């Protein structure tokens, strides 16, 4: 999926969007934001399920699970035969926010951008239609404008923007154009090239020369203060759309030794178990080092290794943190300390 591939733009009414989603849900698994309690999360929509995104800002948990699903059996051994299990068919996700699409671009570089790629992720990524929905209201903890992830120019099939009674629709792939062509009665051409929505975020994170500043801040006392506050619950990594670490667990039941599964389990660097190696050694035992690992991975190692920050400004790590640690506040303190040393 690349950027815009058509000079034409379209409109679809909100009523007709429901018809479009109903049609797609009959052909493939279709996921969209669904409210459960006070939060939204991605759930599968069955044909006839009504899309209700009133009050939707972003999902509680990221869409990462659709591409790196927890508990997936990637390999099975059954009565002397090995089989590698791959996702079959097509799927679609509607309502993913631009920041989370930028997160997928981070995962793409990690999972696909090297000599050896993660084949299960690749299969799901290539066979999942992505229909982002541009934000209309920023979340309380969003800072996507600081991370330059508010707008999208690539990696979508159809980009939707709420403009009142209609959605403005921008095609971004051949598959997106095919969907419009197959549902001509639901779309009408738009005279507007793009729909511009300004959603200024309350929180800010200054990224200027940030990897260089962090390189000099290893011994900062700020990390000791944050480590004392942190409870190592891993909510930050669990909710982060660009955390991708996982373990492969061999599930061999004594009752059925002829049937063995190799299961993917997501893992998190904020937990002690993550850095436990043979012999029981934990190579990143101090909480301060685990806190630093999270911050440096998102804001220093990402630019160094993949050419972009691994933080997309979604703000979930702030929202979900039990200790009320705010990544924008911590980086602000690190930057203030750096500026005072000049």
Characterization of this structure:
Helix content is 32%, strand content 20%. The protein has 342 residues and is of the alpha+beta class. The strands form three sheets. It has a four-stranded antiparallel sheet with strand order 8-9-1-10. A four-stranded mixed sheet has the order 3-2-6-7. A four-stranded antiparallel sheet has the order 5-4-12-11, with no helix packed on it. The longest helix has 20 residues, at 287-306. The termini are far apart.
Helix % is: 25-40%
**Low confidence ranges:** none
Tell the overall outline.
globular
Enumerate how many helices there are, as a single number. Answer: 11
Strand content: 15-25%
Give the biggest sheet: 4 strands, antiparallel
The ordered H/E elements are: EHEEEEEHHEHEEHEHHHEEHHH
Main features:
single chain; 342 residues; alpha+beta; four-stranded mixed sheet; 11 helices; 32% helix; 20% strand
Can you describe this structure in just a few lines?
The chain has eleven helices and twelve strands. The chain is of the alpha+beta class and 342 residues long.
